[in-house]
Each structure stands twice: as C-alpha cells, then as structure tokens.
Design brief:
This protein is mainly alpha-helical. The protein has a domain at about 1-30. The protein contains 3 helices and no strands. The radius of gyration is 26 Å and the shape is elongated. About 0% of the residues are buried.
Length: about 70
Amino acid sequence: MLQEENWDSVYNTNNINEMFIKFQNTLIRNFDNSFPVITTGNRPKSANWFTNGRKISCKRKESYTY
C-alpha cells in the first residue's frame, strides 16, 4: 500500500516538521487500513485452572518470611 501512495505532498514540503507530520499521517492511515481493530465478545473469564490446592499453596507461600 505504501508503494501505491502518492508521496508528492511529503516531498514538496519545505518545512521538515510538516514533512514528518504528513509522512506520519500517511503511514498511520495505511497501518490502520492494513490492521483493523477486531473486537471480540465479552465472555466471563474462567479460572478453573486455579484449584483449591493452588490457593492453599499461594497462601502458604505468602506466609513465609525470608
């Protein structure tokens, strides 16, 4: 997509700050078009892997003084 972009507006600018802003805007626009934000459904987080044995182990580990 960047190869097909018209860069004349960037190259024909005398101010380096404006040139960078135009370049950055073009880059961000192409990036956003190439990698759109995908939202997924909100599902509750399951903590089935965190068993009672692990809870006890964590509590025991927290009680140690080093």
